Amino acid sequence: MSTLKVAVLQTTLVWQDCQANLAQLTAQLADVEQVDLIVLPEMFSTGFSMDSSQVAEPEPGEALLWLKQQAALYQAAITGSVAVRTAENHRVNRLYFVTPDGAVQFYDKRHLFRMAGEHHAYQAGQQRVIVNYRGWRILLQVCYDLRFPVFSRNKNDYDAMIYVANWPAPRSRAWWVLLQARAIENQAYVFGCNRVGQDGNGMQYAGDSLIVDYLGKPIAELAADEAGVLYATADLKALHAFREKFPAALDADHFNLVER
What we know:
Elements: E1 3-10, H1 18-29, E2 37-39, H2 52-55, E3 57-58, H3 62-74, E4 77-85, E5 91-98, E6 104-108, H4 118-121, E7 130-133, E8 136-142, E9 160-165, H5 172-186, E10 189-194, E11 196-198, E12 204-206, E13 210-212, E14 218-221, E15 228-235, H6 236-245
Helix pairs in contact: 1-3
């Protein structure tokens, strides 16, 4: 499939209330155009809560069941992160990627935001995850991961990146600039989804959701502080043509990440 139509849902979130958030998102999705992929914010069912003992759902849980229902209903993949309690009783910030046939893949957030104590409330993931969907190879990333380019470096193994976030308004410029930087340095599309509104800790979120092409050019964006849906169509043939014309990856430094 050469093109991929994406809908990024920039929304408010109800603090630590899964059922209220799922009801709100269900109503919002009813008005979304037919697309191939729907992107929701980080911790879309609870907000960015560090009370993991209260908000983390078992696997599989209510939010995952809802994702499966929406993927089947709209015949589109849907992705967003959820606080999850694993079978081993670990709590993780898990980005689910669910396809219309009910298949589930996931990535556990690698870089935990220590300034909010996330590293105390959740366990860091270890694996870099790329999903294959309708001919596209898509790297899954969550919020603070955006600040660590080595982890997301393209090894000619993906075509697009997803960043879901609860990225606070005071650092909006970093969000905006780094999404474009990741697109440029990796010659890949970037789909960035951030929430709006205020959370239970009084933190304000400006949104600034953004879809960026492989040149680093924003091709769709949402105004700050406004809930809404962002649409864009990514073109795989155009991406491949640009990489052939400007093969910067051939001059990249080769490295392997080593755990310490």
